[in-house]
Amino acid sequence: MTSFFCRETLRKKGLDFFSGCSYLRLAFGMTGIEGEERLFELHDLSFLETIPKNTFTNEETMIRLFLKGGPVMWPLLITSIVALATVIERILFRVRERFRRDPDVVENIFSQVEKGNINAAIRAGEGSNDFIARIVVYGLTHREKSLSNAYLKAANKELQRFNRGLPILDTIITLAPLLGLLGTVTGLIRAFGLLGAQELGSPMAITGGIAEALIATAFGLAIAITALIPFNYLNARLEEARNVIQDAGSQLELLLGQGGAAAGSGGSSLEVGRPTSSGASAH
């Protein structure tokens, strides 16, 4: 019983090269050839220094894991870099636009329009960095031709700025899991290719290949999930900007109608649609 216990203990420690009663003699503190036993000393385990140890750092482990994923990991790396750069640029854009907002200027413009001082309203909004002020000023400047068309043109131009980068994130969210699945399929093909006669006695080679094939899928899903959060946030901010522009257009149309200055609007509603590549309204 003692010999079995020692055998199992040493096997778990990687010392399973003894045989027979050597386990028993080691358990009782004896070593050496049978009949010439001596007390067991710590230097008898000096061979442990030659056993390889796991000396990889976290960075090296990630690199090894990346390389095990196969060639598809490189396109996944590119998509992750593009997604990160897009998210950073969009967040900086949102912060910049937030600090550029100037509700006092917009209120002053509407106040002048309500009084019928259209030229004073244009001067009040000229040079402003607020995107609502720019849209209203552009519409008022071209009110003689068509106020509604001018307002919608300026609104869609501003919305395109808010929409920039979102198609890229949308593509990456869809593409990354598909690339991961492609890497898994190619990895499984390589793993099952080892089922030749020379590999039948090594099941670890097959199971290890399957495990490595799943690395690409894990990375693809991680990229898609990570990009999905800022994508939804930026979409919400886009809808918020569209609603603000729509409200400003409705207020401007109401004020011009009260002041009798809506003759150049053509009777059209200032309804803002989704931004398109041509800059025209989606409605």
Word description of this protein:
The chain has 283 residues and is mostly helical. It has helices at 2-12, 22-27, 58-68, 73-100, 103-115, 118-125, 131-141, 143-163, 166-192, 203-259; strands at 30-31, 38-39. A two-stranded antiparallel sheet has the order 1-2. Strand 1 and strand 2 (38-39) form a beta hairpin. Helix 4 packs antiparallel against helix 9 (166-192) and helix 4 packs parallel to helix 10. It starts with a helix and ends in a 24-residue tail after the last helix. Residues 1-6, 13-29, 39-43, 260-267 and 276-283 have low confidence and may be disordered.
Write the layout of secondary structure elements.
Layout lengths: L1 H11 L9 H6 L2 E2 L6 E2 L18 H11 L4 H28 L2 H13 L2 H8 L5 H11 L1 H21 L2 H27 L10 H57 L24
Antiparallel strand pairs: 1-2
Helix pairs in contact: 4-9, 4-10, 5-6, 5-10, 6-7, 7-8, 8-10, 9-10
Characteristics:
disordered C terminus, disordered N terminus, mainly alpha, about 70% helix, about 280 residues, two-stranded antiparallel sheet, 2 strands
Q: Give the % helix.
A: 55-70%
Instruction: Give the helices and strands as they follow along the chain.
Output: HHEEHHHHHHHH
Number of helices: 10
Poorly predicted runs of 5 or more residues: 1-6, 13-29, 39-43, 260-267, 276-283
Please tell me how large the radius of gyration is.
36 Å
Please state the structural category: mainly alpha
Distance from N terminus to C terminus (CA atoms, Å) equals 86 Å
Strand order of the largest sheet: 1-2
Q: What portion of the residues fall into strands of 2 or more residues?
A: under 5%
What's the average pLDDT? Answer: 76
